[in-house]
Design goal:
Distance between the termini: 38 Å
Number of helices: 4
Strand content: 5-15%
Radius of gyration: 18 Å
Largest sheet: 2 strands, parallel
Shape: elongated
Number of strands: 4
Strand order of the largest sheet: 1-2
Order of helices and strands: EHEEHEHH
Length: 113
């Protein structure tokens, strides 16, 4: 499995982001993974997908960093809704109202609660 760590270029944050990425790269390599550290959008990251399980804020710093180097990113709101939907189905035996669940989750995140 190839894992890419995202560290977009930035004035003051670049060194800290790179240091963190290098630390993670070392750990992941010890576990046997191939690791690449992406620092800019060189067109090679279009097939990279970054998933952040956080859903508030809807666009996290990790997601913005991934998009800055050309990767696709998504948050954890869909995961939250689909986990709830699957649980609903297992407990009730009924098809879950996924669209309504997703809309309610999005409304809750947007209203600040």
């Amino acid at each position: 499995m190839k894992i890419s760590l995202v560290t977009p270029a930035g004035k003051q944050s670049r060194a800290g982001n790179r240091t963190t990425a290098v630390r993670w790269a070392r750990i992941l390599r010890q576990l046997g993974h191939q690791v690449a550290i992406a620092e800019e959008d060189d067109g090679k990251n279009a097939d990279m997908l970054v998933a952040d399980i956080v859903y508030k804020p809807l666009k996290t710093r990790l997601m913005m960093q991934a998009e800055a180097v050309g990767a696709r990113a998504f948050n954890g709101l869909g995961m939250l809704a689909w986990q709830g939907a699957r649980s609903f189905e297992l407990w009730t035996g009924s098809a879950p109202p996924v669209d309504a669940m997703m809309a309610a989750a999005l409304e809750r995140v947007n209203d600040g609660n």
